[in-house]
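Continuing the batch. This is chain 6 of the set; chains 1 through 5 are on the previous pages. Same settings as before, nothing changed between runs. Recording input and output for traceability.
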Amino acid sequence: ADVRAWVTQLQALPSPRGGTLTGSTLRQHLYALSNLYRRAQGEGYVPPGFNPVSALMEKPTAEREEARWLEVHEAALLLEAARVLPLRRPDLAAAFMYPLVATFLLTGGRKAEVLGLQVADVSFDRKTVTFRKNATRRLKTRPSHRTIPLWPQLEEILRPYVFQADRPPSELLFPRIEAGQERMVTDFRKALNRVTVPAGWGEGAITPKMFRHTYCAARLQTLDRGAPVSPYTVSREMGHGSQDMVERVYSHLGQVRHRSEVVEYRIEQHGEVLAERLERLRAPFVTTFVTTPAKLG
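Output for chain 6:
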């Protein structure tokens, strides 16, 4: 009864984005409480089997909605926006937004995985990108330690970025320098908005999580030696131990089919679909923001 009353109280609480807590959030609260009782059983504070959460006959249900993601042509537009964006603060994340967004879109890595990549994790000789634990951040699960292909488009973007003459030496691929110390970037939402808003998306509409979904959807459309790529291959590249998450959560069927041997988001391949948005991006947007950089915020 106490747990049921607690759930009723949680249902009335406001959520950070307005409204009330969703069913999935309520279930997470219940999972946390249930784990607490499991720990209490293991340490002898309550009798074995005592868990009032398990006794609830009716629990909040999680609303299943398809996650937001970008189709191939939309990802190509986003990359183009990151490429042409004039920079005002080269000392901040805006200095490497183009290679950073490209790495998200062309590896499918989780936010911390990509931000914690080291230069040594990118091998231009073997054409690979390796996600592994380092001193900056850990990995989420054991299968998260993985090596994926360095796709040609990503190599084209990262090679000049890594080997540019004026790039300060650092272990991290995308470092944040504070008082001469190298640190991992943790929040780049403002810099990302400077790319997405002029390209036609609302502020905060694009998140790193969407990049992971986008990569999976694009990868599932690729060919592996002439045949459709195996979902198992994609699940391993995503850092999952099984195909379930790919099939249930990360796979999306878009309106634009793009069959290729590689994952790529090239703007020249989608000129007809993006003609109007490209015209706005490359002409008025570039002129306005180059001449009046203060409007970038």
